[in-house]
Amino acid sequence: MKVIYGEDVKEMFGSKYIVLELDTFLVEGEELAAHAVIAAEDIALGDLADLQHWCEFHDKMINGYKTQQWNFVMDCASNLRGKFGGEIDSFYEIMKERCAEFDKNGIPDGWEPTITK
Q1: Fewer CB within 10 Å of terminal CB in the chain, N or C?
Q2: Domain residue spans of the chain
Q3: 0.90 exceeded by the pTM?
């Protein structure tokens, strides 16, 4: 798996790779989306039949994060572990930890789903 930053990543790599949005970063005033780019050969043969479903499920999880649906995101992240050849399981764990923290303590004032660097 590679992580690539930019807005046109799906257009550039989507025909040959699985491209999944991760986080969005604000760097020097510019928003850069981070995407995981996963080669199909990294996916178990048995998982290929459901690949489109899991891609859509991942996208729903990202949207849930952006709209502060913490419990939904945590459930999605749990269900997505092991998918995509386990290539982004660490990201799903991070999402669960973030959302658990937000669910427990609330979000900071002015929270945006963008990470400032």
Answers
A1: C
A2: 2-116
A3: no
